[in-house]
Design a protein that fits this description.
- The protein is an alpha/beta fold and 234 residues long.
- The protein is built from ten helices and nine strands.
- The protein folds into two domains: 67 residues; 125 residues, 3-Layer(aba) Sandwich (Rossmann fold).
- Strand 3 and strand 4 form a beta hairpin.
- Helix 5 packs parallel to helix 10.
Length: 234
C-alpha cells in the first residue's frame, strides 16, 4: 500500500450506527486530499477530527468549500448534506472550567455531526460547588452527561453521586504540575467511588461523544420499536 492509499470503512454505519471519522493528526496533506476525494466520489460525508488550522489552510478552495471547520474543537464536517434530526434526546456536556473548552467543543461538534442536540454547562466545577448544585435538577433530565474536567478530575465523581443518567468522564490535560497532563484526572475517574461511571482517554472528546451517541441512539431505536409495536397492535 502506498503512503497515499486509503481504505475507508464505508459499512461502519450499518454495523454500529455511525460512520467512520477521519483522524487528521499525523496524516499527510496528500493522504487527507485522497480521503476527501474518495468521499466526494462516493457522495459521502465525514467528520474530520484533530484538524489543525495550518493544515486546513493548505487545502484547495474546492475542498474548503465542502468543509465546515471549527478551530476551537479542531473538527470539520466534510460534504455534510444531512439535516439535523429530532429523534434523539439531548446530551449534556458539563465542563469544570473554560480551560476545558477545546475538549468539550470536540464532544459537542461530534454529537452535532451525528444529529444529537446538546446543552452545554460551562465553568461549574467543584471549586465553586454552588454553581454545580444550581444545575443538578436540570442535569437530572438528561439520559447521558459528559463530564469534562482536568486538574484533580473531581467533577465526574460528584456528578456521579447526584444524577441518575449515564455519566461519561472526559479527563483533560488541563492543570499544573501533579496533574501530569491529564493522568491525575484519568486516574481519579477510574478510581471513582461513584458507581457506574464510564471513562474515555485523556482529551478524547470524540470518544466521549460516541459513547453518548450509542446511549441516545439505542433509546431512539427502542422507542421507535415500541411505537411500531403499538401501531401494529391497534
Amino acid at each position: 500500500m502506498s503512503n497515499t492509499e486509503v481504505l475507508l470503512d464505508t459499512a461502519r454505519t450499518d454495523r454500529i450506527g455511525f460512520a467512520e471519522a477521519i483522524l487528521c493528526a499525523r496524516k499527510s496533506d496528500q493522504q487527507l486530499t485522497t480521503i476527501m476525494n474518495q468521499l466526494l466520489n462516493n457522495s459521502a460525508s465525514s467528520l474530520m477530527t484533530r484538524l489543525e488550522a495550518d493544515v486546513f489552510a493548505r487545502f484547495t478552495d474546492e475542498h474548503k468549500a465542502k468543509l465546515d471547520y471549527d478551530p476551537v474543537s479542531k473538527t470539520a464536517f466534510f460534504n455534510q448534506t444531512s439535516t439535523p434530526s429530532n429523534k434523539f434526546l439531548p446530551v449534556a456536556v458539563v465542563s469544570a472550567g473554560t480551560s476545558d473548552m477545546p475538549q468539550a467543543a470536540e464532544a459537542i461538534r461530534t454529537l452535532t455531526y451525528l444529529g444529537v442536540p446538546t446543552d452545554q454547562f460551562i465553568d461549574i466545577g467543584v471549586a465553586g460547588l454552588w454553581r454545580l448544585l444550581e444545575q443538578v435538577d436540570t442535569l437530572q433530565t438528561y439520559p447521558a452527561v459528559i463530564a469534562v474536567a482536568g486538574m484533580d478530575g473531581a467533577l465526574p465523581s460528584v456528578l456521579g453521586g447526584l444524577v441518575s443518567g449515564s455519566v461519561i468522564c472526559l479527563p483533560t490535560s488541563t492543570g499544573y504540575g501533579a496533574s501530569r497532563m491529564g493522568e491525575t484526572a484519568l486516574h481519579a475517574a477510574l478510581a471513582s467511588c461513584a458507581p457506574g461511571l464510564s471513562v474515555v482517554n485523556i482529551d478524547n472528546g470524540y470518544g466521549a461523544a460516541c459513547a453518548a451517541f450509542r446511549i441516545v441512539n439505542m433509546i431512539s431505536v427502542h422507542s421507535q420499536s415500541q411505537q411500531n409495536g403499538s401501531v401494529a397492535k391497534t
